[in-house]
Amino acid sequence: MSAAKTPSKSSAKSSARKTPAKKAPPRKPAHDEDIHPVARPFLWLVSDKVRKGFIYLVGIAMVLSIGADFLIHRHGHFDFETTPGFFAFFGFAAFAFVVLMGWPLRRLTGRSEDYYPESTEDD
Amino acid sequence: MTELLSAPMNPAMAILVAGLIIAALPWHYARKAVMLISPFVALFFWLKMSAFGDYAPLTLDTLGMSLTTFRFDGLSRIWGLIFIIAAFLNALFALHDRDRLQDTMSVLYGGAAMAAVFAGDLITLFIFWEMTAFTSVFLIWRTGTAAARNAGLRYLVMHIGSGVLLLAGAVLLHAQTGSWAFDHIGLEAGLAGWLIFIGFGIKAAFPLLHSWLQDAYPKATITGAVVLSAFTTKMAIYALARGYAGTEILIYIGAIMALFPVFFAVIENDLRRVLSFSINNQLGFMVVGIGIGTSLGINGAAAHAFADVLFKGLLFMSMGAVLYRTGTTKASELGGLFRSMPITAFFCLIGAGSISAFPLMSAFVTKALILAAVADEGHWIIWLILVFASAGVLEHAGIKIPYFSFFAHDSGRRVKEAPWNMLLAMGIAAFLSVFIGVNHRWLYALLPYANDYEPYTLGHIVGQMQLLLAAIFAFALLMRIGWYPSEKRMTILDVDWFWRKPGKALAQWTYAIIARLWAHSKRGLLHTLSRLSSMMSEAFSPEGSFSRVIPTGALAGSAVALLTLALLGVYMAS
Amino acid sequence: MNALIVSNLTALLPAWVVMHAASLIVVTPLLSGPIALILSRGRLAWAWALVISVITFALSLVLYGQVLDHGSVVYAFGDWAPPLGITYNIDALNVLILLLVAGMGVLSLVNGLPSVLREIAPKDQAPFFAAFMLCLTGLMGVTITGDAFNVFVFLEISSISTYVLVAMGGTTDRRALTASFNYLILGTIGATFFVIGLGLLYMATGTLNMADITAHLHTHSEDRVVRAAFAFIVIGLGLKTAMFPLHTWLPSAYAYSPTIVGTFLASTATKVAFYAMVRFILGVFDPGSPFSGALLEIVLAPMAIAAMIICSVQALHQADLRKLLAYSSVAQLGYMLLGLSMGTAAGVSASLLHLFNHALMKGALFMGVGIFGLQYGIRQVQDLRGLGKTMPLTAAAFTISGLSLIGVPLTAGFVSKFYLITAALERGWWWAAAAILASSVLAIFYVGRMLEMMYLREAPKAKGRTKKAKTGNVPLLALVPLLILALANIWFFFDASLPKGLADAAATALLGGGAL
Q1: Which of C235, C425, C493 has the CB atom closest to B562's CB atom?
Q2: pTM reported for the whole predicted model
Q3: Where are the alpha helices (DSSP H) in C2-41?
Q4: Where are the domains of chain C?
């Protein structure tokens, strides 16, 4: 699930905040002394290989799950439901649609953070 | 003594009494002890209930009614249990918090919600219904910002309104049926039915009545949001299941509820607000189940409510922990936190998996009931909408929440892991979410109706895995090609915009126009208006004409006038 | 449990006392008046009045026991059978009022001593208590008697003593004198109307015994004289009840009279007049007759609603605390008149219950204001600032009673308003239900105004007000009755079997079984 982007530029925004966060820009994660000991064994999850390979991993798994449809017969309430790969197709389409609708929706309803005067006091 | 122990006791009383004790206890540790122990007392009361029935009747001669303060049946049993569990988890999660007001209010709030669930009549329901509003609002106000104050006020207005509608409907219903009992109401009951329906609908966050939720919950305190997420809406779902099972319009309302938050959650930057949208979305599933109204549908709503309290609480807890350590839940400022909060990240992933209905996790065995109930009745469009919404759930709750806070690009924040009590609370919630997913028979046995549905068929597992994997694949693909809308700091509008902007603008505009008209002419309508108000004060103020010592002659005159009126009336009557 | 206490009490008292309780309840305070005058010293006269009022209360409990056992009791003076002799009739309706008047008499006397000692000149204190006893006599007499002319006599005894009591406030506030004068004029007009009505009634029926009048009226319902009598009696009593717009005497009378008088009158005097109204409209006259229905709908209901709304708005605008409460009282009397005007058993029962509850809450509120006055000389709403901190106990009791006045759940006020609304809906008077709600919303504001001052404002720094008042300064004597009433306001939410049982029985007896 964790397809990560490049661990890039430390955001100037966050370092300006008065949170307990350390200001130091992240070094190479494996040598970061602040990393929680429990997290250390899992740092490979954000390695470049895993990040780039993730999509293939999921893709293969998806193809396999579609393939299973040809081996077993799924019982369904509706006819269309039993079409092989129905859920995969529908899931992909639904997800893509939801995400892509984000663009126009954000145009329509997105406003600057201090749109409501009272919320400026928030931070 | 044994008699006392075996007598049926209302679990809600244990919590409410604990709330009162906590209010009076000046010692922090004693308060926390009471908070942690009281759910176990309530659980003890719950466990020793051996038979369904109405208990603890409270005869209010006063109101000429016998109230049923404790009704234990299939429906209230499961809701009672999950509220008890939630009360304990909330207490544990808030263990570090030194705040008497919040401790008191959150316990009383949970107790009130529990008491409302066990209420057997509409009056008891009303009293605790309003009590949940009055107690919970402090969990929002306690944040202390102007935004929280205003949002709390808006929240309070909506919720008191909900209670008033409930009471008005109850009185009308009583006039029709002569009974106060809280059983099936239905829209057939006419105006009374509609009033109560809308009253319930406000708390269940029906579309257009929902904005209080996304408005207030993200502004609540860290612990407050966790507490809030458990009770109010789930109580409303219970009330709908009790009063409006099989009401067809609920199917469509629920479908809209499940659908629209999905789109908003994508672009929302505040992760606690994303979770608030997610509440709305999950409620949609339950409302559809209630609208279907078959035993499978009601079972589905009950089971899903049970699971939702756990995984939604878990997700709110994890975001609460993040907020506690970093001071923000804005996706644009987070990322990479698993390096410093790996255990929280792990539990958050369990919550995300549970809500997304991965096999072996809770929603897989609960949401399936609702989908099966919908399909059984042949509502294929609704069924498609719910499957569509399930993909949306995966997007905002399954991926967005854990990904943008714990993974994504490293924000560089290096903080401490969450306090042990938060971790323990999250751990228990995570354990229970998986436990239900694995031992679904245990949960099914608690449902209101007998349930022989089997979620773990090969077909179901394969279908669900297809859906989830394809959706994750879509996510990876969209990220790769850069079509995923990146997180931005912004305010996303909702229906509350109508009263926060045009409503306010209208008021301001009216004011400006009035001022202008006033300047132009002192004679117009506004002049009379102001005259009217000054006449009011002239008439009613202590020195005003109404209060002046009226000449005795005039008084005698008015007495004679009234007498004349009376004589006329009496003579005219035939 | 009530019955148990009452029967134990009855067993304790000598047999002749129990037998003649009905006459003793009037005779005792009547005779005690002159004796109070002789006692010349304030505290002594107070103690005497207290003893007598306790006895009166005990006797009303005995009568309550008799009503519980027998339903209704007829006591004939000198064994002269009615209609020749004078009879006292005790039933569910008036025993409720008897209990209330005698009980409030005891409580306001206990509460009132410190204020009397401060407000009344020492030489006037004994006469003051004598007048107080006479007032009590009059109120008990109006309530208990079964003779129509007797009602007039006792009504005048209570009224005249009230004029005196109100005027005694003149030593601290000269406005009490005009208030008393106003009251006197209007009260006399009311009494005149009433006695004219009685005369007409006597003309038509030839008897003054109420039961006997009722029996005769069955054959006279088309008689114009009877109709005129009805109008005169209702308006005459309406004046004494402070029915809108004849209420104008009330606010000043309550506000400028000595504290104890305000407390006692607010919780009893108008209630007794209202009782007389119920008795005449529903008991003596035939409630089923067309003219009765017409008067109820044309005069009583609109006036009731006008009172509920207009006087609540007036209460909202008052600066003087006791005037605020007094206007609120007129508005609350509107609720009772509204219940009566519905002409159904449910309405009348709700109205009687509200009468009882209103006495509890308004008595407590006046007591609270009295204590604030004793402590800090407070008379204005804005002087309440910070009292939540400086006098927490009194403020808490005041708050509970205020919430009850609004009609918040868990207080007695909720119960009676709830019944009123239900009765209105049952009658199909949705506008009446709406008016009750609207008036309650106004009550939220005028009570809220006081509570806001008490809890949300800082106490003014001057006059030593910032410090917590030493409990020693608040006389325990004054505080205890207030606390009792405040608790009663909660108690009667959970168990209102006493007033509700009596009110239901009374309404059923008057209207024959109706909706209950």
Answers
A1: C235
A2: 0.64
A3: 2-12, 15-19, 21-38
A4: 288-516
